[in-house]
Amino acid sequence: MLTCFELHHFQKLSNQENQIITIGSLSYHTPCPSLTPGSSSLMVSDKLSQCSFWGRTEINRSAQMVPEFDNELIIAIGVLITVIIAGVFCYFQSFKVGSVPFANLSMLETIDTVTSYDSPLRIHNLSFESGSTFRLLLPQLAPVIVCTEWKVAKEIYKDDLSDKPDFYKVFDLGTGCPVLVSKKTSSPGPSGWAMERKAFAGYFVKSKYDVDVLHKRLAELDEILNISEESQDGEVDATELMVRLMIDVFGESALGIDMKGLSGAPSGEVSLGRIFLEEMRVVMRQSTQPWRRYMGSFLPDVKIAIAARERLIAVGEAIVENGRMREAEPGFTPSHLLSKLLNYPFPEERYRPLEAILFLTGGYDTTGYTLAWTLFELARNPEEQSALALELTQEEHPSRLERVVNEAMRLWPVASGGGLRTASKDFTTKDFYTIKKGSKVSFNQYSMHRQPWIRNANKFIPDRWRNEDPQVDELRKSFMPFGFGRRNCIGQTHALLSIKFSTAHLVREYEWSVVQEPKPMFFLTLKPEGLRLKAKVAAAATVEDLTLMIWRIMCSNGSRGKE
Fold this sequence. Notes:
alpha+beta; four-stranded mixed β-sheet; 563 residues; three-stranded antiparallel β-sheet; disordered C terminus; 18 helices; globular
């Protein structure tokens, strides 16, 4: 596979001075030192390895360039002014009859709640005090409302005029170029949402799923787990491994590029997959604190995020250039997604790498973290793990696998913050509160999936998804891990196949136990941070066994999605 391309797209970084920005005890080298394209193509990893900004090293805290109290002072002044103005406005609005009631938090407490890394969990706790629908006291003129009623959520999701708010511009990476997920539903023409969605949706049907790539990448993962069992008693960072697995699977099958997430890169080269994962984490951590982007000239961690954003765009350009080179290779047939990405009539060429970044992020993030959460629940519920392993070896059409995955996604919906919509009209809740036109409505899926009406809502019980369970009908109606309506997740069919295939393989071949439970961390998606599992080889499955198992899963009714 070719991994080289012309580095003309790094010219914009070539004349910037190398500097070190420090935050806490970490120093970040940014931006890239001088890069100039040679007379011939160079290896992607060779060129990236020359950029000192990829590295991070420990330094003395006294070497900080910007004192911490300056950051706090700047934030405090900005927040104080905003709080005073918005507080007066919200105070008078709260007296309107039928208005959604405010949560019992001050504005500063509310800001702390929604910007924390466990915000879905904290908002879920608020719902016990404030009810199923409540308003957040935030410094915005438009009301910000949390709704955990699935009927109201579906009603708003189905309303095409209730569009996505500007928050989704975080996916544009500050370029001003709207990507598929941030475009307005009504945007017209080839650059509009409807036509672009239709063009790319053709890739994400079951028949186009590349099982061969999954086979190969699972074999790489097996090597890592087997080595780990010999050298570290089987203990692994499960979250990191599952995310690296999925970035490799999607990178090769959909975009035609080896991201080297699992294997790493040879000595002297750089793994694009690991670079992408690290820089995306830096960028998305800032997404929980959107006002901070306006303080980029003051806050060093915002400067770091801006530099990481530029590097992500450079990797996106690398993916596009690699795709063009591979497209010209004799005998290479690009996937439907890659072909569309390279040839779709975007308004400008700079849209192309942004869409590559969007699809790659969607391809590994939700899938990899859901897989990690699923393994965690199976590891701490060994009876469920054993029952699933037994069924996978004996049943012609295993149904327990779907129940296990559904239950993991119910407890730990990766998109736990839920969708956001701007209400196009008034909507009425079950308590007869009115969600006013223009309100920004958040559907907290973490809370929606753990409502009091659900029996033992906080426990992992896959059998609650059996057809004979008295709650299963309402449970299925309220279950929206991939969103709902026309703006649902475009890749949900492939995501479910990847999660189910990988879970089945890993449960058949290994016995999992918990070494260290994770800390739920939310920035863009809910991640099992710090999850460490022990993998003990149970019974090595042959390629024929795996092929037969995948065939059974694909023939079952469990792989549902919008095709």
